[in-house]
Fold these 2 entries.
Entry 1:
Amino acid sequence: DTAVSQTPKYLVTQMGNDKSIKCEQNLGHDTMYWYKQDSKKFLKIMFSYNNKELIINETVPNRFSPKSPDKAHLNLHINSLELGDSAVYFCASSPTGTDTQYFGPGTRLTVL
Amino acid sequence: AQSVTQPDIHITVSEGASLELRCNYSYGATPYLFWYVQSPGQGLQLLLKYFSGDTLVQGIKGFEAEFKRSQSSFNLRKPSVHWSDAAEYFCAVGAQGGNKLVFGAGTILRVKS
């Protein structure tokens, strides 16, 4: 009974490719997030959605496009991948925007 | 805007010894405060949180943290560390009415036997 799941767990790809990461939560939460953890383990929020509407976009390059088909899913599509996009991407969800966030297991993206 | 400082990048303690991980935050109002733990190759697991009320909060795995408004701190403690506690620990602050967490840089805990 995974609460927040992400696929794939690992993603290795070449520069210039386009890739997607999927996130699903079965907690019934209204708010979902994407965070990026860089090589120094620093975690920074990228996006937040509440009931399928974008509420936070933290100056992320427009090569990154989140999509929320319903409130249980928040996918992240990345165009024209660059070396600097290599990181671990975490999805999270919370009942509301001000409540406890529950994190998925992460997707390790490696761009070669 | 809120910010979090975890002054210690690495801490090494002996198994059975007590532990305190420091966290200082910057925020103009009463914050929401969290401690998460990340084991190698794993996601983040919530240890405990402070929203309001009693300033000493208990969490999972025998951890506790104390909110001290006057010091803008939310230090994590455990009276007796186990080898399985070796991991990276992240303090985070959220704004009331806000929608994001701001994380500290993390503290890596090593436990020696």
Entry 2:
Amino acid sequence: GAVVSQHPSWVICKSGTSVKIECRSLDFQATTMFWYRQFPKQSLMLMATSNEGSKATYEQGVEKDKFLINHASLTLSTLTVTSAHPEDSSFYICSIGGRGSEAFFGQGTRLTVV
Amino acid sequence: GESVGLHLPTLSVQEGDNSIINCAYSNSASDYFIWYKQESGKGPQFIIDIRSNMDKRQGQRVTVLLNKTVKHLSLQIAATQPGDSAVYFCAENAGGTSYGKLTFGQGTILTVHP
């Protein structure tokens, strides 16, 4: 399977600041990457589909101006949480699609907004 | 439709027992299903998958059963070990243009007692 790396693994930021999370595909050229959010004791919820060279597709209820996604190359997608607030504290996970509909996940980024 | 987990169900077993984890999926158009294992603070790890043209698939110590009539998926783990303790999620993919895009079930916390 593909190897997906996220950075940072965890981050603490002050309320009102912005945080950027990187998702890298180390051995696979990914035209599409996916961003999920997971609150404690809950399931993963898809936030958006990141498309290389074009705009991301956001799921219903996800603010595209708050969660900025950039997919400038086949190996890197970034998620920027703008003007973060405590309610944005969560576990953010990216994935890339494999050749057979399977998805390979990064190790996740724990965001804490204080 | 979306599957949202508010509080994950739990399953406790003794080491050596067999475990069965169940999942109900929502989209009758889904044609690919995956089971993931998630350990605390980590991203989901692929366990086993099955396509909709099958009703059973076996891996090493794991078996997935698919019942499309009632939209039900199960994961059987044989001779459960303490290292199997984790949260288990089923995920579905509708294929086609949603290649790699997954909808997750609510998850089950599996605890294996020595």
